[in-house]
Write a structure and sequence with these properties.
By secondary structure, this protein is of the alpha/beta class. It folds into two domains: 7-13 and 265-396, Aspartate Aminotransferase, domain 1; 19-261, Aspartate Aminotransferase, domain 2 (3-Layer(aba) Sandwich), CATH 3.40.640. Helices cover 39% and strands 13% of the residues. The strands form three sheets. The chain has a seven-stranded mixed sheet, sandwiched between helices. A four-stranded antiparallel sheet has the order 9-10-13-12. It has a two-stranded parallel sheet with strand order 1-11. Helix 3 runs parallel beside helix 8 and helix 8 (248-286) packs across helix 12 (366-385). The structure holds pyridoxal-5'-phosphate (PLP).
Length: 407
């Protein structure tokens, strides 16, 4: 098959909807269009059955004991907010302290900032240079006032996988709830809410080859029974936790995406890990001074985040404009601040600015990886040839010893 460009390697931002998923959802737009809450007639009942099936598919994907624990939402952002604000408000009488990690997704961080403005106290834990949470640091942060610990499964920038089972055990020992944002984890790593001692788990369809605008929050019903204050009030859908007419076509698609992810993960994660290895080996064989960001072992198979020293970040991205990737310098935002995730790892600003996040997914091929290796190599070499700093480095000059002012 001929290579077609641009090549999509940004599967952490979103994924292409799997054609099997699209096929499953289409009949629910116009043939089976009923409202899943209309139990008095067959239109409603057909919709309700489809939603129930999807709920079971979702529960199976995360090892949940029953599908009654799945609350359908508009995506992981809403699920994150429902979990964090919902738990904080419900358990306010028990304590006013929350713990999370400074490399979490913005939805998690900003939900905590909102709670701080309400008077809650939040500890934002640092990470080690490999991006992983130090369990001793977490243990020491938990106090008798702590009600919730929020740690993501797979980081959306650097792909590192946090030690979930250990965190779950620690939270259980201390009697605090454990919320996990697993948006980047479903279908990528083995995830089991029972084995990992997770109490609340957020996920979203569009990161797992489903459509945008549908997500879920799994809420533990036993040992302990977790209660939440809802964000939305209304018709009392989703056991009162999320009012609003269910988006039946999207839910059907989400369920199908979850089933495919569960079934195909063993084979797919190996294939994707091999593509990632090919990319990393290729880049390192061709180029010096390429730095890996985040731990290599505890990492989601499709993620490679690397910095290319002595090139200018924006020029690098422009040079590989036919490859869709994302960069560690937030050129999209108004500021030129480098990624807060890379900063938290202690990556210097210059290196953070030249970092690229490659997100390999289900539909990528070896040809595409080879193309990416070639394009990145050419561009980095070209940019370095124009760089006086690179020339000095090649001549063996230690840049730290240079007196730039000329005195
Ligand atoms: C994408 C993502 C989100 C946001 O999910 P939406 O469904 O787009 O709201 C939250 N957390 C993580 C880790 C993500 O990768």
């Amino acid at each position: 098959m001929a290579l077609s460009t641009p090549v999509y390697l940004d599967n952490h931002a979103t994924t292409r909807c799997d054609p099997r998923v699209v096929e499953a959802m289409v009949p629910y737009f116009s043939t089976h269009f009923g409202n899943a809450a209309s139990r008095t007639h067959v239109f409603g009942r057909v919709a309700e059955e489809a939603v129930d099936k999807a709920r079971a598919q979702l529960a199976r994907a995360i090892g949940a004991a029953t599908d009654k624990e799945i609350v359908l939402t508009s995506g992981a952002t809403e699920s994150d907010n429902l979990a964090i604000k919902g738990a904080a408000h419900m358990y306010r009488g028990k304590g006013d302290h929350l713990i999370t990690v400074c490399t979490e997704h913005k939805a998690v961080l900003d939900a905590h900032h909102a709670l701080e403005r309400e008077g809650f106290r939040v500890t934002f834990l640092p990470v080690q240079t490999n991006g992983l949470l130090d369990l001793d640091v977490l243990r020491e942060a938990i106090t008798e006032h702590t009600i919730l610990v929020s740690v993501m499964a797979v980081n959306n920038e650097i792909g590192v996988v946090q030690p979930l089972a250990e965190i779950g055990r620690l939270c259980k020992d201390k009697g605090v709830l454990f919320f996990c944002d697993a948006a980047q984890a479903i279908g990528k790593i083995a995830l089991d809410v029972e084995k990992m001692g997770i109490d609340l788990l957020a996920f979203t369809a569009h990161k797992m080859y489903g459509p945008k605008g549908i997500g879920a929050l799994w809420v533990r019903r036993k040992n302990p029974r977790v209660r939440l204050e809802p964000l939305f009030h209304g018709g009392g859908h989703e056991r009162g936790l999320r009012s609003g007419t269910l988006a039946v076509p999207l839910i059907v698609a989400f369920g199908e995406a979850a089933e495919i992810a569960t079934r195909e993960m063993p084979e797919e994660s190996m294939r994707i890990a091999a593509l990632r290895q090919r990319l990393w080996d290729g880049l390192r064989a061709n180029l010096d001074q390429v730095h890996l960001n985040g731990d290599w072992q505890a990492r989601s198979p499709g993620n490679l985040n690397a910095s290319f020293a002595y090139v200018e970040g924006e020029s690098l991205l422009m040079g590989i404009s036919d490859i869709a990737v994302s960069s560690g310098s937030a050129c999209t935002s108004a500021s030129l601040e480098p990624s807060y995730v890379l900063k938290a790892l202690g990556v210097h600003d210059e290196l953070a600015h030249t970092s690229i996040r490659f997100g390999i997914g289900r539909f990528n091929t070896e040809e595409e990886i080879d193309y990416a290796i070639t394009r990145v190599t050419e561009t980095v070499n070209r940019l370095r040839e124009m760089s006086p700093l690179w020339e000095m480095v090649q001549e063996g000059i230690d840049l730290r010893t240079v007196n730039w002012t000329g005195h």
